[in-house]
Amino acid sequence: MDIGLIGLPRSGKTTIFNLLTQQNVDTHAFGGRAESRRALAPVPDTRLDRLAALYHPRKVTPAQLQVVDVPGLSRQETGGPNRFLNDVRLVDALVHVVRGFSSELGEPTPLKDIEDMELELSLSDLDLVEKRKDRITGGKKTTKEQQAELAIIDRLHEALENGQRLDQLDLDDDAKKLISGYQFLTLKPMIWVINLDDEAFRAGEFPDREKILQLAETHRIPVVLMAGALEQEMQELDPADRLEFMQDLGITETGTARVATAIYGHLGYISFLTAGEDEVRAWPILQGTRAKEAAGKIHSDIERGFIRAEIVPFEALIEAGSMARARERGLVRLEGKDYVMQDGDVVNFRFNV
Ligand SMILES: Nc1nc2c(ncn2[C@@H]2O[C@H](COP(=O)(O)OP(=O)(O)O)[C@@H](O)[C@H]2O)c(=O)[nH]1
Ligand SMILES: [Mg+2]
């Protein structure tokens, strides 16, 4: 699960990268260099703490996202396919960090920045589509398969020219399979993070708010508001002060946590949980994953030797107070290999090797 942070320079990407990955990279460090940085970010999950209180494990392991901090897209570069986009092709989802605070660059123009970025991504996809089309039609004869591909490509072309993102097209499985190899940018799940100053964050206000929210709804893009610089200061406080700070702000979760959770959900991930004295852990799986395949996330031997999954929903386990009591009350079910895993299932796989 690779997540690319994109946006104009000085919009707060590295600040948010540091917050997400609990790193401390100098925000001035790129200095014209054009390389991406990557690190793992935990996906916060309060259920893990509750389980840890039951099991006192040696280790608590949250699900993780790999975050890529991409050098900024500069204004001068807009208007054609950008080299920065190459680094972005291989990620699974995009987070567009949008400057919503005033800075040495002037007043924020979040709507314009969003529109520019969307245009940039569309142009890049359009470029890919046209290249592919030329390659097919440039040959002597087109095969049946190529004709089928051309029909799909024409649809993509039309959609992109009409300002539609490709993730909104209703494509059948064949078409989806065909285009999955292209790494289209507007096919990737996208989230907009509006990075705000304290006051704007408290008020939930920023320029062109209504228009941006409307656009997000049209494109089905989640919007997360956060206050990057403020959150960075908050990070330096000890836990009790931080809690007070958050209460004062009227939030129960940091913006960082909301960004990670939003991406995770938008990518279609849920977590099953394992709990024991050794480790309490969240395992990411795509919605709709079946028990046997889920077992394979832990170890291929468990998938191969799969017998049954013992499952208790997290809430039921907490209510019962212990696994033993959950068992007594008949809350622990035995499921077979085709059981569709649910978010928050606490699982023990039975297997033999
Ligand atoms: N006022 C304000 N400044 C911020 C915020 N987030 C980041 N900054 C500052 O903006 C500058 C650029 O941030 P940086 O994370 O390096 O942006 P990047 O170029 O997109 O990676 C730094 O000086 C940050 O301290 C914010 O929410 N409010
Ligand atoms: Mg940066």
Automatic annotation (TrEMBL):
Gene Ontology cellular-component annotations: cytoplasm
Family matches, as InterPro entries: ATPase_YchF/OLA1, Beta-grasp_dom_sf, GTP-bd, P-loop_NTPase, TGS, TGS-like, TGS-like_dom_sf, YchF_C
Obligatory cofactor(s): Mg(2+)
Segments forming domain TGS: 266-351
NCBIfam families recorded: redox-regulated ATPase YchF
The protein's name: GTP-binding protein YchF
Gene Ontology molecular-function annotations: ATP binding; ATP hydrolysis activity; GTP binding; metal ion binding
Keywords: ATP-binding, Metal-binding, Nucleotide-binding
Organism: Sulfobacillus acidophilus (strain ATCC 700253 / DSM 10332 / NAL)
CDD domains for the chain: TGS_YchF_OLA1
